[in-house]
Every structure is written in C-alpha cells, then in structure tokens.
Amino acid sequence: MSTPTSTFPAHASLGDQDAWWKSAVVYQIYPRSFADSNGDGIGDLPGIIGKLDYLEQLGVDVIWLSPIYKSPQDDNGYDISDYQDIDPMFGTLDDVDRLLDEAHGRGIRVVMDLVVNHTSDEHPWFIESRSSKDNPKRDWYWWRPAREGMEPGTPGAEPTNWSSFFSGSTWEYDETTGEYYLHLFSKRQPDLNWENPEVRHAVYEMMNWWLDRGIDGFRMDVINLISKVLPLKDGIVHEGEGRFGDGFPLFTNGPRVHEFMQEMYREVFEGRDKLLNVGEMPGVTIDEAKLFTDPARKELDMVFHFEHMGVDREWGKFGHTKLHLPDLKAILGRWQEGLEESGWNSLYWNNHDQPRVVSRFGNDGEYRVESAKMLAAILHLQRGTPYIYQGEEIGMTNMPFASFDDFQDIEARNYYAAVKETPGFDPDALLANMAKSTRDNARTPMQWDASEHAGFTEGTPWMAINPNYRDINADAAVADEHSVFHFYRKLIDLRHTLPVVVNGDFRMLLPEDERIYAYTRSLDGTTMLVLGNFSDDEAPVEIDDVDAWAASELVIGNYPAQEPASGITLRPWETRVYLREGDAG
Ligand code: TEU
Ligand code: CA
Fold first, then answer.
1. Strand order in the sheet with 217-220
2. Which atom of ligand 1 is nearest to the CA of 184?
3. Which whole-number Å values give the CA distances from 200 to 204, 259, 302, in the listed order?
4. Among all residues, which ones are annotated catalytic?
5. I want to staple 333 with a disulfide (CB 3.0 to 4.6 A). Which of 201, 290, 407, 508 is the partner?
6. Helix or strand or coil: residue 425?
7. Cβ(558)–Cβ(514) under 8 Å?
8. What is the pLDDT of residue 387?
9. Ligand 1 atom 18 nearest Cα
10. Ligand 1 pocket test: which of 221, 224, 309, 438 has the largest number of ligand atoms within 8 Å of its C-beta?
C-alpha cells in the first residue's frame, strides 16, 4: 500500500502548531447515507474514498466518520459489538487503511467516532457480563436488583426512576440473572461501568490501537455521561413526567468525569501530537467546558454543547416553537465570551441528530440559497472550529415526512410508541412536530446528482431520498459559482487565510434585534463585521458608524453588492461581511 506523504497545510493563521484545529474545518460524514459503492443501498467506505476529491475541493481539513464498527444497527451504529473491526456493510479494515492513505495524501485528517459510554448488547463483554452474577465481567456494566419489595419486571420495580433518552425506563430486566441493567439510551445499548478500571483500560487499549493505525483523533459520544453519581438514586419527578424522575443531573458531568478524561489523556494521548479530540456533551455548561478544554488540564481540545439546539423547543425534542433570534444570540454569545480566555468552541448547526438548519432556522423555500449562505457565514466566522454536516454545504433541506411510518430512527419510533396511547393524543400535531425535528431529517441519503437515487446508489436506498434532489445536488452546486457550495468554500478559505477569523476577539452587537444577527471580530487593529438578516423582510442595521462600515471592504456576501445611499439595510436573509483596519465597532 503506497502511503503518499501527507501534506497537511499549515494555515497562515496558526500560532500554535499543535492547535492546528483552530484554523481547521471539519466535515461530518454519516457513512450509511453518504455514498454507496456496491449497490446494496447503504453508504460505505469505498463510497467515501470516491468522494475525497469533492471534499478536497470544498477545502475541509478533517473528516469525522460516524461509527463504522461491527454493530447490529439498533441505533445505526452507535451500538457497537466490536470496536476493532468494521461492519461488513461499510467495508473492511483494509478499506479504512486505504481511506487514511487517500485522505492524508490530500491533506485531510480522519477522526473516528468513539462510543464508549455504552456498547451493543451483542458485544462479547456484555454477553459475558449478563451470563451470570459471578462472571468476571459482571461489573463491567451496571447491574442492580429490583427495587426493595417490588416484583421484578413490573413497572416501578426498576432500581431508579430515570427515563431513557429513547423513552421508557433506563433499566431493562434480564431474566437470566433476575437483575436489571442500565441503559441511558436503547435497551440494546447497555452502559459500561466506568467505575471499573478494567473497563477504562480496555477502552484505552482500543483507542491506542486505532491511533497506532493512523487515525487523527476522536469525536467522543456522550462522553460526559460516563461518570454517574453514586450510589445510584432516583431523580426528582417533574410534573407531566408520569412515573419517571429526572436522572439527567445524576449522570451528566458526574463526579469523576474529569478524573477519567485526565486518565484517558495520560494513557492514550500523552506524547502524541496533531490530534483533534472533541467531546459530545449533552448538558455541558460553560464552566464545565472551560475545565474540559483548558489545555493546561490535558483533557479535550473542544466540546459540543447543546444549548442552541434547544432554543426553538418548548418541551423536549419534539415540541417545536419558532426561533426567537435574541435567544439564539444570547446562547451563542455567552459561549463565545465564556471560552474566550481559555478553551475552544465547536461551531455547528447540524449533525446526524439534528434537523437541517436551512429548514429549522432559515427559509428552505423562496430564500433557501440566501438563508443557507447567511447561516453559514454567521456560524463559520465565530471563534471556534466549524463543523459541516454532509449536505449542509449544498443547502439540503428537511424531508417531507408524511407518516409516522416514515420515521426509521429509534428515538422517533420509541417516542411515538410511548405517546400514541396517551389520552388526548393528537396525531396530526405530533406528526407535524416530529417531522420538523426527527433525526431522520439528517439521515436521508446525500444528494450527489440529478440521476435516479441522486447518484447515492445504483440499488434501492436504505432510506427514501428527498424528492428535491433533482434541483439540490452536489453536481449542480459545484457547477454553479453562486451556489451554497462555493460560498462554503470561500468561508473555509477565509478561515485558512485571515488570522482575525481564527484568533479575533468576539463582540456581539444588537443583542435584542429580532431580525439581525451582528457581531465583530477584532485582532491587531483589523476588525471584521459579520451581519445576517434572519427574516423575509428588509431590515436596517442600526449600529455605530454604520456609514463607515458600508464604505469598507465587503469580504463576502450573498447578494449583489449595492451602492449604499447611506447606512446598511439588509435584504431578506442577506449576509454581509466587512473588513476594516482600525479598532472600529
Ligand atoms: O447523541 C447523544 C444525544 O444526547 C442525542 O441522543 C441527542 O440528545 C438527541 O439525539 C437529540 O435529539 C449521541 C449520538 O450522536 C446519537 O446519534 C446516539 O443516538 C446517542 O449518542 C447514543 O449513542
Ligand atoms: Ca454499500
């Protein structure tokens, strides 16, 4: 196997070579829906290799692969039964080696998804653990007897009253040994017991095996859930939650999580360089994120928080409300300010768990292209590392789901099964809400061209393809110099070439404006003004010395430049990015 010498670009903006990821852009691939090379309707590794030229043209520096390991696919691969082998549906370890060579040869690093809060129930570790109470691996998972005085297997007999992310209890009764095991997610995703040093060291050994194979880091799935408050106890029961209590505070950012992360660093990352390690952290706060990402603490490089992913939700995942822009600005502004001194932000609108941002926060009809570009500019020019989710760069939209049967995701299917029997259940209202926020929106196949099945597969796609693929596809985008794709390419280039984008101080403007998102970045006497109109209306930008800004250099925009009579009035979904010398703004 020829290993091309890797030519990782050292971008102009870098101060600290080890923090190369400060000027990098990451592209997330959901392999099952990215590109199918063998006609079985499921994306695979050879399919990804075939698209590396496209990703190189886009200009991304890293690809993050959602799990490709052996898995029964209960949660589309986030239920792993062998951490050191590839599920045949995606390919082989040789395919991984080829992907690494081909990506590295193009200056693109490869980060793998690490899912170690839980395994699949088909993992050999769990099969042993569940086999008997005195099996040596019994304590690799969380086993507990039924609640005192309760009949095992009956509702309420679970050891704690926690509810799962995927509905129902977090405990599954196992007849074999008459005890329950813990699963924060599906019952086929038993939680590993990180209190057990044998578990931790088995995980570190596997991580080292992957890094020795040549990968460039990890995206760590729900890594802030690995430490639970002991002893395990009930959560507070909130109004409307039925018999379930809120376990979230008892398993999120737990008492030993930093100890475990620092141990992981010592056992795995010490002495290695040029890696990118990002922790996915539901419920992480700014104060916690400062601890996780402070370089002096040797834990992680950055984290994904979820605060802005709840901004348009009244209650839970499927209770959608309209975006109130000041709320979004308050959240993202706080995170910019909170991590300015030490630590680092991840910047994202999309991933495989979230609906498509142009449908969620933009206008995916009349102003789909303008709003997709505006959203991209607002995100990418903040301080942090931007993440692009497959299809976001061509403005892919939510899917027009028409029935509960259209949902394939376990989160949506379990939720529907749990609520459809409740009194007053309104199927039409729930379907409308679920269609807007189900994770399925992110998992429809990538739209490559206008041919049958959007060029994703020669076979029958595992999931229906968005019918708008004839107009919205990568081929058309690459061919159109005014497309969302080329706008993303220019934003990525700005991050690679303008130090103010990487290291500039952030300042939010117009926090209360309900249509305009405005902020500045400033560094060494250069100031950048980033503007976005989150509305279908024209909107004036009422900031200090607006005329001076209007007369300054327009670095990027999504409308033809217009000569200002005076001031700045943004057109519907317009973004403008100005650059000035001098500490303006
Ligand atoms: O997601 C963690 C997580 O919290 C999500 O389930 C999120 O809360 C929810 O999807 C928001 O609607 C990670 C993975 O990204 C997700 O795909 C997995 O299902 C989950 O962990 C379990 O591994
Ligand atoms: Ca395939």
1. 302-304, 276-280, 217-220, 109-114, 62-65, 26-29, 385-389, 346-347
2. 22
3. 6, 12, 21
4. 221, 280
5. 508
6. coil
7. no
8. 98
9. 78
10. 221
pLDDT digits (tens, 9 = 90+) for 509-538: 999 999 999 999 999 999 999 999 999 999
CA of 48 to the centre of ligand 2 (A): 10
Rg value, the chain, Cα:
24
CA of 37 relative to ligand 2 center, distance in Å: 5
What is the per-residue burial (b if ≥16 Cβ within 10 Å, else e) of 161-197? bbbbbbbbbbbbbbeebebbbbbbbbbbbbbbbbebe
User: Three-state DSSP class for 504?
Assistant: coil
**Between residues 6 and 300, which one has the greater pLDDT?**
300
Determine the distance separating the centroid of ligand 1 and the alpha carbon of 335, expressed in angstroms. Answer: 21
Contact (CB, 8 A) for 482 and 395: no
Q: Which atom of ligand 1 is nearest to the CA of 166?
A: 6
pLDDT, tens digit, for every residue of 215-272?
A: 999 999 999 999 999 999 999 998 878 889 999 999 999 999 999 999 999 999 999 9
Cα 537 off chain centre by: 31
Nearest residue to 290 (alpha-carbon basis) of 282, 277, 280, 300: 300
As a whole number of angstroms, the distance between CA 39 and CA 271 comes to: 43
Q: What is the DSSP string of 59-78?
A: T-SEEEEPP-EE---TTTTS
Q: How far is CA 307 from the centre of its chain?
A: 13
User: Cis before residue 197, ω within 30 degrees of 0?
Assistant: no
For tokens 């700045």, name the residue: 568
Question: Ligand 1: residues within 6 Å at CB?
Answer: 75, 78, 115, 165, 185, 221-222, 280, 282, 317, 352-353, 411, 439
Q: What is the Cα–Cα distance from 565 to 494, expressed in whole angstroms?
A: 28
Nearest CA to ligand 1 atom 5: 353
Q: How far apart, in whole angstroms, are the C-alpha atoms of residue 159 and residue 149?
A: 11
According to DSSP, residue 584 is labeled -
Interval between CA 77 and ligand 2 midpoint (Å): 15
